[in-house]
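Following up on my earlier thread - several people asked me to post the actual chain instead of describing it. Fair enough. Here it is, all 283 residues.
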Amino acid sequence: MVADESWFTEASDELGVGFSLKVRNKLHEETSDYQTIAVYETETFGRLLTIDGLVMLTDRDNFVYHEMMTHPAIFAHGNARNVAIIGGGDCGTLREVLKHDSVESVTQIDIDERVTRVAEQYFPALVESNDDPRATLAFEDGVAWMAAAGDASVDLIIIDSTDPIGPAEGLFNEAFYRQCHRVLAPRGLLVQQSESPLVHAELIRDMHGGLRRAGFAATHLLSFPQPSYPTGWWSATLAARDDLALAAPTAEPAFDTAYYTPAMHHAAFAQPAFMQRVLAGDD
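Reply from S.P.:
Thanks for posting it. Predicted structure:
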């Protein structure tokens, strides 16, 4: 929501937290068939993209999220050739995936084409890989796409969705996870954004439980700072189709990153004591 013309504020009565950015002006606003999309020019975080009044990304800090949603999973897999991204309409995750020469094909499935078209207009750096011949953009429902996908046809599924409400609600349940498990090839991995460890511990526990009930052999949590998201502390959940050791990177990536390094990869999987208890089902 916007408190006045000079500040954008996302406030949650449920969580009792808020985040504000001083804005210069609103560049764009529209209501698509699914949601309201807006773009602001801020004083200190560059351009800001919001959906239904919630922060999706800013120029200043989106690199953390996009890199941590992609590189840990791709390096942990070790040989991900075919990738599916559910959501991710701003295309930042797609750009990061395509930095890996080992990836042969990426299909991005987002229900709302307007998010991508707005990103093309206002966030050109995020969409710079959209014309890569390995990339396919599909504007359709991710749940339906997964249900129609072939068995063992994808090595890595990245669920880069909004919060588990509205169009993204169907991406956070056991039935959807069962379809993902079916679609993953042997050694396949799934990674999904899983909100803030500090205030969404119950959601994280439920996600890990749902993934295991759906047949995934192991689940892991990785966390990272995300200043423009609630609490500034965010996470992704990594689920392995099979009970196999994850690859551990040792060398620096062969491409430029702003946050990800092998050391940050290893650190992201370390859990504080309270989250160890949550994931063990003790809290």
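DSSP finds nine helices and twelve strands in the chain. That should answer part of your original question.
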